Amino acid sequence: MPAVLAIVATVGAYLLAQRLAALARHHPVANPVAIAALLVLALLFALRLPVESYMTSAQPLRWLLAPATVAFALPIYRQRAAIVRAGPALLAALVVGSTVGIVSAVATARLLGLSAATTKALSTKSVTSPFAIALMERLGGPADLAAGLVIVTGLVGVALLPLVLRRQRDRDPDGYALALGMAAHIVGNQHVAQAAPQSLSMASLALTLAGLFTTLILPLLWPWIAG
Amino acid sequence: MLKPAFWKLGRSLKLGLGLALLVGLAGAGEWASHRLPLGLPGAILGLLAYLALLAASPRIHAWTGEAAERLLKVLGILITPAAVGLATHTDAMASELGRIVIVLVVSTLATGLATWATFRLVTSWRR
Question: In A38-156, where do the E strands start and end?
Fold first, then answer.
């Protein structure tokens, strides 16, 4: 498959997915990346092209992912006043949330006897996809599986957490937004933008800072995760 | 007539420089990642370096902010190939699917609730 076709197909599928998500009034379950991936898969199936060939041809898009991950410094820098304002409560919540995210996923996966590759991929389920891909590529885990599980985690998070924390949405919108941003990353942010827009900055901070913190501690826990 | 042309040229120059800086930092991060015994991904080292540059000078923000913003806006497109790649794991995942769902439900609830409870606890201590 020519690289140009793979890139055009990806961009076209994503633009169409955004239109479809808008038609669904940006419901968190109508995740543009998931829809775009399904559209690309449908196209590959229709053209009888193997997924592996698409993956090789779409490599130029993967190369841009690293500079895009570097760009995450911008929202952290712009929200520095909010970080200082929320201070110790925000940092404590992110440290505990990130640690619980990794340990609970790996421990439950071990308990249920999941394969080593799946367990590794699940260890990054609580960070946004670019961070998960960067971590897996550096530490030697399955990057595509991790990225896919991150998206599914986001969907699970917005399906369950608003039910469990429904009373907190009005009582403690900052805590609600942090929990959604931490556990369901970008999909959680989309939900908070609609459900508690006054606390969107907290959800966005959870997304970026938790991703950063997880990338700092995951290499330390890697011998346990990979063992 | 000349003013808008200069403005456009300046904006394109800023975008180009911003993008070059981000690509350069990602490359430098990758280089450093394989030489430091930290196990940190190159892109994350690049992120930390960019954050340090932003904090060091407001000019860096003025010159590179728009390029970073634009890259973040197309992030969904850049992640899509990885999401498509999940299809290559379907055979291996088929036997584990039910257990993976259990892990995702248990761990996502634990993560969200632990985050919320810690934030509430520390906030109430500080009052």
Answer: none
